[in-house]
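Checklist before submission:
- one chain only
- standard amino acids only
- sequence pasted in full

Submission:
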Amino acid sequence: MEVLSGIWKGYYEYGLGYDLPYFGERVKIEYHLDFKNFNLTGTTYEEPSEFSVDSKGSIDGFIEDTLVSFTKKYPIYPTVNENGSIELKPGELIVNHTGYYDRERQSIYGLWTINNPDTVNEEYEMQQSEGIWLVSKE
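Returned file contents:
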């Protein structure tokens, strides 16, 4: 699996849980990954844009055969304000990723999800946002 270590580039796409203009937008990403004994660690960077999170994040997870599962953690909590712009707030953002490794194409792809706590009428609810992602080895 150490052959998989290195730089991976691709994108993520905003999906359900996002309104326009975010829904369907793609953000270019770069992962610096290290694979050892089925464990996956690394860092993530996003190309700056009006739709990206301007922060470096950490990656921690595993790969088993073709199944890939990891979380990305950012040391800030981005939200979309009433003007439709990303606003960075104190906190931590955790993005869960589940997907597959395609050996032939040297790509990893799948679904990402964010569970967003929300308070509606003084009751705690969990809202989910999701989208797709794809990275290929450089």
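Reviewer check: The mean pLDDT is 88.
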